[in-house]
């Protein structure tokens, strides 16, 4: 399985419509890949909160239209990163879009954990309320976004739902790049799954982005890592490695907490 992560540079001087077309051209250039991934909120910038309201769009809006056509032209599965979705009731969501090679929108995921500590996304957007998996070429794919990476319980639920490959678009700040790499590898090791972590380059609203998209295998080995600037990272995966890893080192089988039917005793208050 060939995967390509498009670490696009979000330049605030570039009009959104121009960036859509440029991103679509980059997707079309990846014909021959099986799965192509774009970063979080690349049309506007993950930290450009002042643009969220004006650039919000429905699920069949201009970004979806352009990305659908690009997936069809390239003949690839396309995780088109995320957009600022405006729901029917007017609420805003940070929503990821997954297209199949025929251009159909096959899955959407509304980001559950919103970042900002009572600012930005955390107050301007509503949070999703469900995990999402999809099947891509017979492989279970779990969807998550950026700040979700810090919440391992979400990834446990994705694994329980059949995920063998975890796709995470992000707009991760450069000042916390070490956390980005560390957490992506940790989620891969504990989930015994591939992690495709696609970051953004450039600067959003004065915040320098980390870039350094990476592909991690189920043992935590980094199979490929981008630099800080705009770059396309392409890696070939062996999907069979997930089953082999889980069979050779059956740690998931030994889980006791969080499993239905397993009672967790209350903490001992005398200790």
Describe what you observe in this structure.
The protein has 271 residues and is an alpha/beta fold. The chain has one domain: Nitrilase/N-carbamoyl-D-aminoacid amidohydrolase, CATH 3.60.110.10. The protein is built from seven helices and 15 strands. It has helices spanning 16-28, 52-55, 62-74, 121-124, 152-160, 177-191, 240-248, and strands at 2-7, 9-10, 35-37, 77-86, 92-99, 105-110, 132-136, 139-143, 165-169, 194-198, 201-204, 207-208, 214-216, 222-225, 231-236. A six-stranded mixed sheet has the order 6-5-4-3-1-15. Helix 1 (16-28) packs parallel to helix 3 (62-74). The N and C termini lie far apart (51 Å).
Tell me the number of structural domains: 1
Q: Please give the number of β-strands.
A: 15
State Rg: 18 Å
Reading the helices and strands in chain order gives EEHEHHEEEHEEHEHEEEEEEH
The structure class reads alpha/beta
CATH class: Alpha Beta
Q: In CATH terms, what is the architecture? A: 4-Layer Sandwich
Q: What's the tally of helices? A: 7
Q: What is the strand arrangement across the widest sheet?
A: 6-5-4-3-1-15
Mean residue pLDDT: 95
Comma- or semicolon-separated keywords:
single chain; 271 residues; alpha/beta; Nitrilase/N-carbamoyl-D-aminoacid amidohydrolase; six-stranded mixed β-sheet; 7 helices; globular
């Amino acid at each position: 399985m060939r995967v390509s992560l498009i670490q696009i540079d979000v330049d605030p001087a570039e009009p959104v419509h121009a960036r859509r077309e440029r991103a679509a051209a980059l997707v079309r250039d990846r014909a021959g890949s099986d799965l192509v991934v774009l970063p979080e909120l690349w049309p506007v910038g993950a930290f450009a909160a002042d643009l969220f309201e004006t650039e919000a769009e429905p699920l069949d809006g201009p970004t979806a239209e352009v990305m659908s056509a690009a997936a069809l032209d390239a003949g690839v599965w396309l995780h088109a990163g995320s957009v600022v979705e405006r729901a029917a009731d007017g609420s805003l969501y940070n929503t990821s879009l997954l297209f199949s090679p025929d251009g159909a929108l096959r899955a959407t995921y509304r980001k559950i954990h919103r970042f900002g500590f009572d600012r930005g996304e955390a107050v301007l957007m509503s949070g999703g309320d469900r995990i999402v998996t999809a099947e891509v070429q017979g492989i279970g794919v779990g969807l998550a976004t950026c700040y979700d990476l810090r919440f391992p319980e979400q990834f446990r639920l994705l694994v329980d739902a059949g995920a063998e490959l975890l796709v995470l678009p992000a707009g991760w700040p450069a000042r916390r790049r070490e956390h980005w790499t560390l957490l992506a590898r940790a989620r891969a090791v504990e989930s015994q799954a591939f992690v495709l972590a696609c970051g953004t380059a450039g600067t959003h609203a004065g915040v320098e982005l980390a870039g350094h998209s990476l592909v991690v295998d189920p043992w935590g080995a980094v199979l490929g890592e981008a630099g800080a600037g705009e770059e396309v990272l392409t890696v070939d995966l062996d999907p069979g490695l997930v089953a082999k890893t889980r069979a050779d080192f059956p740690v998931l089988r030994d889980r006791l907490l969080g499993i239905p039917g397993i009672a967790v005793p209350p903490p001992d208050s005398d200790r």
